[in-house]
Task: structure prediction
Amino acid sequence: MTATIEPEVGKSRRRKEDERLITGRTRWTDNIALPGMLHMAVLRSPFAHAKIVSIDTSAAKGAAGVVAVFTAKDLDPDSSIGMPCAWPITPDMKAPRRPVLAADQVNFAGEGVAVVVARTSAEAHDALEEIDVEYDELPVILDMEAAIADGAPLVHEDQGSNTSAVWKFDSGEAGTGGNVEEAISSAEVVVKRRFRQQRLVPAFMEPRACVVDPTGTQLTMWSATQVPHILRVMSALTLGIPEHKLRVIAPDVGGGFGGKIGVLPEEMMSLLVAQKLGKPVKWNESRSETMLAAHHGRDQIQDITITSTRDGRVTGLKVELLANLGAYNGLVGTGVPILGAFMFNAIYKIPAYHFACTNVYTTTTLTDAYRGAGRPEATFAIERIMDELAAELGMDPMELREKNWIKHEEFPFTTVAGLTYDSGNYEAATAKAKQLFDYDGLRAEQEKRRASGDKVQLGIGISTFTEMCGLAPSRVLGSLDYGAGGWEHAAIRMLPTGKVEVITGASAHGQGHETAWSQIVADQLGVAFEDVEIIHGDTQSSHKGMDTYGSRSLVVGGIAVVKAAEKVVAKAKPIAAHLLECAEDDLEFANGKFTVKGTDTSTGIADIALAVFAAHNLPDGVEPSLDSDATFDPENFSYPHGTHLCAAEVDTETGRIKLRSYVCVDDVGVAVNPLIVEGQVHGGLAQGIAQALFEGTEHDESGTLTTGTFADYLLPSAADLPSFTTDRTETPSTTNPLGAKGVGEAGTIASTPAVVNAVIDAVRHFGVNDIEMPLTPMRVWHAVQHGTTDAGGPGRGEAGGGLGSIDASGGAQ
Amino acid sequence: MRITVTVDGTKYTDEVEPRTLLVHHLREKLGKVGTVVGCDTSNCGACTVHLDGHSVKSCSVLAVQADGCEVTTIEGLARDGQLHPVQKAFHDNHALQCGFCTPGMIMQSIDLLADNPDPDEQAVREGLEGNLCRCTGYQNIVRAVRDAAQHMSPGAGPEAERITENKHVGVGGD
Result:
């Protein structure tokens, strides 16, 4: 009898990807060297907003090693090329053209003005200094509120306004809930806060790079991109290159976090320049260029109003956002706050909800997707305001959450934002987290420290969160005016020897797809993990796909793999029946074998693959192939959730914060590879904690980015972070056959409010109810000293965005 | 200028510009592309290699300064088809995701262990302070380094002894 094979799904397999990565045998884009390859460098504007009066490239053209110099007039003489935006969120959204190179005006510091192509990268960069550009400065627009005030100077004069679009959702109008204004006017308790989501840099470790080879029968472009498939179609649409004449390859990609989701002007420049010169061209950016010109994330002002009964039942939530787009519409940046719109209500039963977002142009670098994209911002706001409401009510913040969250038995649950959460068990995750954390013990210690006036105060931060993963059902994206679907493609090639090649459209950049997909296929086809090869990231071999972002790889791409495997089995079945001389109905498939029910007679998938290869003895009319193709379009998002608890010690004399412990219990449904899940959570936590404590861009008055290098922008090192205690509960998703939910963004989404809540909790008795992120020692110290709601201090305007007003008058009017 | 550098056991003599950084010499002239460049301010540590047995950020060393020296890169660590214990520990402990920082992390970790063969968690965290990772949150890197330390104790095998024989005063990464 066939022994039962231990399932691969659920095993902490060490990764297939590692071997090349730990031995340096990787293929980063910057490693690619082609015969005759030239190097491209981009001259960038030092001004945030200026008219270009003239550009003199004559000296640069004569510089050592220089092959060519291009300005906008050379590359795009008709001004016909505009960088794409895939998400027109409203019919009247402004769409200022973003040129590949600025021709007449620059709109952010770092915008490309000219390119030099030279024999070496060093020569190209040397020659940049020989280009003489005369600028006529225009007013710098950095502050979103000032930007949309009457009479404000305009980023794009021809657009007539710095408001790009206003997008609204109202539960009363949508029929998913009640009217917020009524909730506010009748509320027993109203709490309002203004939160700021500072601007962040995705800070993938591999800078962006691109190589274009025009010397073959088609154009080949290697790019350090998250989205080779999208890049290919967008390049074709943007430049008019016939799509079948363009091959895009994303080789090993050194991280993305949403930061490599764009279609880049530099990629378009490289394509244009390589075609003009007829030679391979490489562009790779310095870190300083990345900081300036790769897109940033977050950057919102959030005005949040929550209402409740005196006993803590939430009755309404109103969200008004200002979202900073930067100088232009990014590929999907316009829609990032809209993704958040569906998550402000989080895990809570909120009867009335109103959301409005104003997208604003400023003379800054573009913003676009950054790990979580809209959902971290939303989760931060709701988890912070729940703590503020708890403080107002004099209630334990955990008790307030428990009182309002969706109960396990209430799933599936349709929220006030109109999403249907398929499954969840907030009680189980929270119970486990509290036990690991020693919630009650720490609360007791907190009381003691407070009573004794200890200079080091202890705070406990809670974040009970959910997110929507698996972007996304195509019909939902359509209803949100997104320019593409959310399906994913997979194909399986059964080789004659029984080995398996799997093609996935979900192009990876460090997540471990090769390992997880191998585990899935091993189970589905009953083949060995080692016998599966995953092919991705090349539009020639992986010809269809929507790539990797929004925690979609497993719950969309992985399911496509399952579907493809099911087709292989279905194709193999009649052949197996023919070979075994039985009826198909008499066969059962398990562990890679078709067995005649009730007998020992069987044939394996490898035997069938060989029989198909020979094709000597197949049933009539059956094609000699087990290969399959599947495209999966999800019916719903998936909704991982979790409970994150943070204990922070705050030195009230110095403002220094020490994270004493961080415990999280995440429920990502079925974990295909728990080792990879844990790694994703760790990395996510680091990024979310970094938003709370360390990271943030700063501009000076002239619009110059003063945090333009890793020396100025504080990316946490190993010494800056604690070890985390992570655990899981497992509530399978009911909307996909793996029961998986996605994990890529969870840690980042959940941890920022957990940390900030902990710090506020530690110093709330000094009268502090908000501190602007990042919570630098200076800001914390200032807040403690002044006992105010406003952290003040560096980087903070007079208006004091943290000033919240509490109206507990027992109902307005 | 003409320089001679022994890289991963092979001697190379080349003409270099005086301004050429060691990392660019390794990558562009010698094809040693396993060592990568992550920043231009020597903050990230992705380009860490060993120069005469000490870890250095190869973006902070001129190629001419390496004249007559021995350089070990990530590509020279495995011997006779065997991974270095630190390489193996990174794999075993899932201490990498995108892997871009990994060569530098591994090279720095080896130097750290040469300096302190049995570091506690804090010592590992401080020893890796000059190397940035954006994917892992560092926890598994710390675990890997401590795991490697256990496998590199004297008597644990020739690879481990190779490391301990080269023990020197660490220079902390720069």
Observations:
- Residues 768 and 813 of chain A are 28 Å apart (CA to CA).
